[in-house]
UniProtKB/TrEMBL annotation:
<dbReference type="InterPro" id="IPR029060">
    <property type="entry name" value="PIN-like_dom_sf"/>
</dbReference>
<protein>
    <submittedName>
        <fullName>Putative nucleic acid-binding protein</fullName>
    </submittedName>
</protein>
């Protein structure tokens, strides 16, 4: 969990303008960047820059390693 401090808000404002993100999406991405996450996963292909790195954080869709089976 990340506390939304001023530095998170400032970064979120930058991302909201740069990537045309809604405020909640921008805060999530800013939090990932500022906590130095390796990956940021989202199903939201419409808004997030999928496949790109944003200040060292790889943005991509969630995925499962290996084969899944329901049985």
């Amino acid at each position: 969990m990340v506390s939304v401090e001023r530095f998170v808000v400032d970064k979120a404002i930058d991302f909201a303008w740069r990537y045309r993100l809604r405020s909640n999406d921008a805060v999530h991405l800013a939090s990932a960047v500022l906590t130095r996450c390796d990956h940021f996963f989202s199903w939201n292909k419409k808004d997030f820059p999928m496949g790109e790195q944003v200040e060292g954080v790889r943005v991509s869709e969630p995925y499962v390693i290996g084969q899944q089976s329901i049985w």
